[in-house]
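Q: What changes when adenosine-5'-diphosphate is included in the input?
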Amino acid sequence: MRIILFGEPGAGKGTYAAELVKRYGIPQISTGDMLRAAVKEGTSVGHHAQEYMKRGELVPDATVIELVHDRIQRQDAAKGFILDGFPRTVPQADSLDKLLHKMHNELDAVLKIEISKETILTRLTGRRVCTNCGATYNVATMKPQKEGICDKCGHELIQRPDDKPETILNRLAVYQKDTAPLIDFYDKKGLLKRVQCEGPYAEALGRVFAALEKVAKV
Ligand code: ADP
Ligand code: ZN
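A: The predicted holo structure follows.
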């Protein structure tokens, strides 16, 4: 199954992606995670991406397209994948189309996670992430057992540099300008599935699974 998880920053793409990984046994391909790893490792891609990310701007298309192309062609993605945070611009979506076509593959669905602006702001401003394993928490809604410490591995929790209030507003504006046009792009292809994800998590997750039930091939 080849799907895109789509939604505003803070919609919960990463959280739902992790659930889908467990359910379908296909990898999550998160450009945000890949870029953060590159920054941490200090690779040339990381150096190049860092400034854009800090400001909440998009990293240039060519850079992320190359990352995703390499990743999708790896063996573990042969049976399917969950794209999280990619594509984010029309040129990225076009490049994905071309690549999948070349590989004789196609997308099964684009799942749009729908959530209120208010929830998004609470999520992003309260988000804390583990410096070691990447687990996420929220100071308002999903606290760790011990403040500032990861329940899973005991390492320190931090706020992502791009989760500062000014940067959050910029990320949301960038989404509206560059990424929202993809809603129409995928709707026209008949791939878009809107899933209402406000409210209790377990119920929202149930709706995410239900939306995919009809397209599941794996
Ligand atoms: P969120 O969806 O919460 O904004 P991500 O982890 O997906 O978080 O992305 C973090 C940052 O990484 C983005 O603000 C952007 O700078 C960069 N990034 C991630 N994916 C892409 C992409 N497909 N194209 C361009 N930049 C990207
Ligand atoms: Zn951890």
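Observations recorded in class: The radius of gyration is 17 Å.
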